């Protein structure tokens, strides 16, 4: 990694090796954003990137947008950029992909680093604003590089390859999780569309008693045939006979075998019936 400062060699490191090798050092800063650069290193390269992002941030600020705050977690494995509240990782810049790191000597709040994107292979310059810790953050990244390089020499280069494989697997896991989340959303949309398709248009969700082809309610064995008792516990009243009996085409009342008695027939018909009954009785007697 090329560094834009040399005075750190005269200073002792700020953190213990264990803090960066086994854990991480966290800093809070404002994230101005990142932009593509043509070269992987160079002071003028990062200065152009800082001017560009400052101008874009000035426009967004005039529109009412605030500079987002982030948390930086620095270790020998890289620099993670997280949301300070949800701890969601926004960017994971692996250390072996960072090619340049510097703090602005004219503006003590600004520090930057250039990292090669793992997907597009483009060089991106990340710019941050920290009122008090810009130089300290840059020195911490430099210390992480020195510790990682020592570990690389001790392991004969195997440790770096292992970190690359782990980084690739972590990136793959993130992609699969994002893909799984998108598939869940699509599945939910399809289920909602299927439910809408099953309900005919204009129909209500209220239950309706089905009818047969003659638009009559079919007989159900669960339906009681006897009238239910009244709410006060008394026996139900028999159905009242209608006062007006409908007549047939010739004006005669229809014959009801369940309600008519012997006195209901006219006298002439009743006498004929009695005569027929007597003849039948005499015939059976002589037989």
Break the fold down into its secondary structure elements and pairings.
Blueprint: E1 2-3, H1 17-21, E2 25-37, H2 43-62, E3 69-75, E4 78-82, E5 89-94, E6 98-103, E7 110-116, E8 123-129, H3 134-155, H4 158-198, H5 267-286
Parallel strand pairs: 1-6
Antiparallel strand pairs: 2-3, 2-8, 3-4, 4-5, 6-7, 7-8
Molecular structure report:
This protein has 287 residues and is of the alpha+beta class. The chain contains five helices and eight strands. A hairpin with a 6-residue loop joins strand 4 (78-82) and strand 5. The protein is rod-shaped. Mean pLDDT is 77; it is low at 1-10.
Number of helices: 5
Helix content: 25-40%
Rg, Cα atoms, Å: 47 Å
Give the class from helix and strand content and strand pairing: alpha+beta
Q: Please outline the major beta sheet.
A: 8 strands, mixed
Order of helices and strands: EHEHEEEEEEHHH
> Which strand order does the major sheet show?
1-6-7-8-2-3-4-5
- The average pLDDT is 77
Distance between the termini: 136 Å
User: What's the shape?
Assistant: rod-shaped
Low-pLDDT runs: 1-10
How many β-strand stretches? 8
Binned strand content = 15-25%
């Amino acid at each position: 990694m090329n560094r834009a400062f040399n005075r750190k060699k005269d200073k002792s490191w700020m953190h213990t090796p264990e803090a960066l090798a086994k854990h991480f050092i966290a800093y809070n800063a404002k994230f101005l954003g990142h932009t593509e650069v043509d070269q992987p290193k160079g002071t003028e390269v990062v200065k152009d990137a800082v001017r560009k992002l400052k101008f874009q941030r000035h426009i967004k600020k005039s529109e009412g947008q605030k500079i987002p705050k982030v948390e930086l977690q620095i270790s020998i494995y890289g620099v993670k950029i997280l949301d300070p509240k949800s701890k969601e990782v926004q960017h994971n810049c692996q250390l072996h992909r960072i090619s340049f790191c510097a703090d602005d000597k004219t503006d003590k709040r600004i520090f930057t680093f250039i990292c090669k994107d793992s997907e597009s292979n483009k060089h991106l310059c990340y710019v941050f604003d920290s009122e008090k810790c810009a130089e300290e953050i840059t020195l911490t990244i430099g210390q992480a590089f020195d510790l990682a390089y020592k570990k690389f020499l001790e392991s004969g280069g195997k440790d770096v390859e292992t970190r690359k494989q782990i980084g690739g697997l972590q990136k793959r896991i993130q992609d699969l999780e994002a893909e799984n989340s998108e598939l869940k959303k699509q599945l939910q949309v399809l289920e909602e569309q299927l439910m809408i398709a099953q309900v005919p248009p204009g129909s209500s969700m209220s239950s309706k008693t089905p009818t047969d082809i003659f638009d009559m309610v079919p007989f159900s064995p669960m339906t009681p045939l006897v009238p239910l008792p009244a709410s006060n516990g008394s026996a139900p009243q028999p159905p009242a006979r209608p006062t007006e009996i409908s007549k047939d085409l010739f004006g005669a009342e229809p014959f009801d075998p369940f309600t008519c008695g012997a006195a209901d027939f006219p006298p002439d018909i009743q006498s004929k019936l009695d005569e027929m009954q007597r003849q039948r009785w005499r015939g059976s007697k002589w037989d």
